[in-house]
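The instructor's notes for this session suggest beginning with a concrete chain rather than abstract definitions. Hand out the sequence below and ask the class to guess, before any prediction is shown, which regions might be ordered.
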Amino acid sequence: MKRTLTLLSFVISIAAATAQTTKKTDDETNCYLKWAQKFESRGADDVADGIYTDVIITFRNGGDAECFNGKVEVKDGKVIAMFLKMEDGSYEAVKKKSKYDKIPVTVTNGMSSTIVTKEDELINVLFIKKIKPKKAGFEKAPEPGDD
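After discussion, reveal the predicted structure:
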């Protein structure tokens, strides 16, 4: 009986250790992290003042994130209005209140600075059309032949 309990506790401890060390797969990485990695690796062009209808607005809470199509207005390099795109093509204003009203929402490298809401939710605007094109990879050299 002691041997069975010892063996069982050993198997459970190995399973627990393995579960803690496994890496996250692409399915477990949230939409915000996937986009942020793309912006980080490629960079983005500057965002000029204007209205953009091709942005993604992300809402994060802990490790969870949701990404929605949206529209924003940029003035003097700052996001001044955000709208979520509805399924019928119309737009609805984002009504979340910022915890820090005096901090402007600036745009750097195609991404807005993070807005922290009163509910401690994190919001970012991603200007996905501003991502720089993927760089060409290096061409592999041929293997030596029998000449």
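Then share the key points. Residues 2-21 form the longest helix (20 residues). The mean pLDDT is 85.
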